[in-house]
Design goal:
The complex is a heterodimer.
Chain A lengths: L6 E5 L28 H14 L3 E5 L9 H11 L2 E6 L6 H10 L3 E5 L5 H8 L4 H13 L4 E7 L7 H11 L3 E6 L4 H5 L1 H4 L3 H18 L4 E5 L19 E4 L5 E2 L20 H6 L2 H5 L16 H4 L4 H8 L15 H16 L12 H10 L1
Helix pairs in contact in A: 1-2, 2-3
Chain B lengths: L8 E4 L4 E5 L4 E6 L2 E5 L1 H9 L6 H12 L5 H13 L3 E4 L16
The chains are: A alpha/beta, B alpha+beta.
The complex binds iron/sulfur cluster (2 copies).
The site of one iron/sulfur cluster has 14 residues of chain A, from helix 12.
Chain lengths: ~375, ~110
C-alpha cells in the first residue's frame, strides 16, 4: 500500500536576495529548468490536491518566498484548507505590515534564518547585508504573537558562535532554535571544502548545546541537526523516500526531497502535466526507492533498514555516483572512504593552519554559468 | 511553575492547532514541525480544553459523556505529556465572576 504524505515543502521561487554558500537549492536554480514559476491558481490547486492526499504540514520556502506578491493569497488558501503553514524566510526587507497581513491570512509559524550571531559575520556569510532586517523581523514576529524558530546553518566559519546564537534566540524570546549542521547538497556540496567543520569544532559546539539545554529546560527548544559526515550511520532521510514528504519546485516539478532534483537518473513529473495524486502514487521517481525492495547489500540484510531506510538517495548519488547504493555516510558502506577523505582533508588543512578554501556565493550569474556547462 | 492540580485551566498553546484529518479519520494536534495523532479520548479531552474549564470540570464532562469512572489519572497524564512538549499550558483557576472581585488592597 502506498503511504500517505504529511508534509509539503512549497518552494515558491528560487529568487533570493541572499547568497548563502551552503544553500540547498539546485546549483542551476537560475537556469531554464526553473524559469517559469507556477501561478497563484496552480499553487492553490497543488495545496488542495496535497490536502486531499493527507498533507497537514506546509512549508512555504524558496529561495525567498516573500518575493512572491501573492504570498498572502497562498497563505489564506492554505489556512482555509486546514494546512498548518510555516513561513521559512531570510526576512530580508520584511516589514511589520507585511507580517501582520500574513498573520491575518492565517499563517501559523515563522522560521527566520540568521547566518551568525553578529552582524559582521552574518552579513559576510549571507553575501548581503541582512542582519538588521532579521533582528527587526524577530521582534515583529514576537509582537504579532507568532511562534518563532530561529534557524542557523552551521559550518566551519560560524560553529564557534553556537553559544552566542543560543543567547540571541533566548533574548528574542524564540520558541525554538534550530542549529542545523550543513548538509552537503546543492551549493553546500559545491562548497564542501570551504564549509566542512573539524571534529574539534563539532565536539566543542555539542558541549555547549548540552550545557545550554540543561540551563534552559523547555524555555527554548534547541534542535541540533547532526553533521552526518561525522556520524557512524546515516540520517533517516525524509523519513523514507516517498513515505511522508514531498517538495514542489518553483516550476512545478515534484521531488521526494528538496535535493532530489540533482539525481539525473530519475525523471520527475510536473504538476502542470499530472495530478499530484498520480505523481505521489504512480510516478516512477516516487516508486523507485519506496519501501525496501530496491535495497542492495549491506542495507538489504541490515537490521537498521527500518530505522534509516538506507540513508539518503541524493547523497548516494552525489558522493558515490549512484542513487541506488547505501548512503556512503554509513560506516558499513563500501564507499565510506569517500566521506572519510572529505573529512580528513578538512582536518589536515586545519592542522596546518591553512585558511579554509574560498566559497562560491549562491548567485544567479554563477548559477547560469553552471547550468550552461550542464 | 504551576503544578497541574484539578483546579487549573488547561489550554491549547498558541503555537498548536487542533485539526481534523479526514484522510486518516482522526484528529491531530499540529505544531511547528510536527503533529500528535489523537485517539478518540485524546480528541475529546482537547476539545474540552476551551480555556474556561478546569481539569476537574473536563474530567466531570467526560464522566457524564462516557459514563467512565476513575479517569482523572489518565486525563492528567495526557495533558501533562502535552504540557511537557509546550503544546498545552496551564492557567491558574479563574476567579469567580460573581460576586465581582473587589479591587485588591495595596500589598
Ligand atoms: S539558504 Fe540563503 S541563499 Fe539559499 S534560499 Fe535561503 S536565504 Fe536564500
Ligand atoms: S547498511 Fe544501510 S540500513 Fe544498515 S545502517 Fe547502513 S545505511 Fe542503514
Amino acid at each position: 500500500m502506498v503511504p500517505k504524505p504529511l508534509w509539503l515543502l512549497a518552494e515558491l521561487t528560487y529568487r533570493c536576495p541572499l547568497q548563502c554558500p551552503y544553500c540547498s537549492n539546485p546549483l542551476d536554480f537560475a537556469g531554464a529548468r526553473f524559469k517559469r514559476e507556477l501561478a497563484t491558481e496552480e499553487w492553490c490547486r497543488v495545496f488542495r490536491e496535497a490536502r486531499a492526499l493527507g498533507v497537514l504540514q506546509l512549508g512555504l520556502s524558496g529561495g525567498e518566498p516573500l518575493l512572491r506578491p501573492d504570498l498572502e493569497t497562498l497563505v489564506a488558501t492554505a489556512h482555509e484548507l486546514g494546512l498548518y503553514s510555516s513561513l521559512i524566510t531570510s526576512a530580508y526587507r520584511l516589514s511589520k505590515d507585511r507580517l501582520a497581513a500574513l498573520k491575518q491570512a492565517g499563517l501559523d509559524h515563522v522560521q527566520i534564518s540568521v547566518q551568525a550571531a553578529d552582524a559582521g559575520l552574518s552579513d559576510h556569510i549571507a553575501g548581503t547585508a541582512s542582519y538588521r532586517d532579521k533582528i527587526a523581523a524577530y521582534h515583529y514576529t514576537r509582537e504579532l504573537g507568532f511562534p518563532l524558530t530561529v534557524n542557523v546553518v552551521l559550518h566551519r566559519t560560524n560553529l564557534h558562535q553556537v553559544e552566542a546564537m543560543i543567547r540571541l534566540a533566548e533574548s528574542l524570546g524564540a520558541e525554538r532554535i534550530e542549529l542545523a549542521n550543513t548538509q552537503f547538497y546543492g551549493w553546500a556540496f559545491h562548497n564542501r571544502d570551504a564549509l566542512m567543520p573539524t571534529k574539534a569544532q563539532l565536539d566543542a559546539a555539542w558541549e555547549v548545546v548540552q550545557r545550554e539545554r540543561a540551563r534552559l529546560g523547555n524555555k527554548l527548544e534547541i534542535v541540533w541537526v547532526l553533521p552526518d559526515y561525522h556520524e557512524q550511520y546515516p540520517k533517516p532521510c525524509m523519513g523514507g523516500w516517498g513515505r511522508a514528504y514531498m517538495t514542489v519546485t518553483p516550476g512545478g516539478e515534484v521531488w521526494p526531497c528538496h535535493a532530489a532534483g540533482r539525481i539525473t537518473t530519475l525523471e520527475f513529473a510536473n504538476v502542470r502535466d499530472h495530478p499530484l495524486e498520480w505523481i505521489w502514487s504512480e510516478s516512477e521517481a516516487f516508486n523507485r526507492f519506496r519501501g525496501d525492495a530496491w535495497m542492495p547489500e549491506p542495507c538489504r540484510s541490515c537490521p537498521r533498514k527500518t530505522v534509516d531506510f538506507g540513508g539518503c538517495r541524493c547523497q548516494a548519488f552525489l558522493v558515490a555516483g549512484d542513487a541506488g547504493v547505501t548512503d556512503p555516510v554509513c560506516s558499513l558502506s563500501p564507499q565510506r572512504r569517500l566521506v572519510d577523505e572529505a573529512v580528513a582533508a578538512a582536518e589536515r588543512a586545519a592542522a596546518a593552519a591553512e585558511a579554509p578554501a574560498e566559497w562560491a556565493y549562491r548567485a544567479a550569474p554563477a548559477s547560469r554559468a553552471i547550468a550552461a556547462k550542464g | 511553575m504551576n503544578r497541574p492540580g484539578p483546579a487549573v485551566v488547561p489550554r491549547i498553546a498558541p503555537k498548536a492547532r487542533l485539526q481534523r484529518d479526514e484522510v486518516r479519520d482522526r484528529e491531530v494536534l499540529l505544531y511547528p514541525e510536527g503533529l500528535v495523532a489523537l485517539n478518540e479520548t485524546g480528541s475529546a479531552i482537547l476539545n474540552l480544553c476551551d480555556g474556561t474549564r478546569s481539569v476537574a470540570e473536563i474530567v466531570q464532562a467526560l464522566k457524564q459523556r462516557y459514563g467512565a469512572e476513575g479517569i482523572e489519572g489518565d486525563v492528567t497524564a495526557f495533558l501533562d505529556g502535552l504540557a511537557a512538549k509546550g503544546l498545552v499550558t496551564y492557567a491558574p483557576p479563574a476567579p469567580p465572576s460573581y460576586p465581582p472581585t473587589p479591587s485588591a488592597p495595596p500589598r
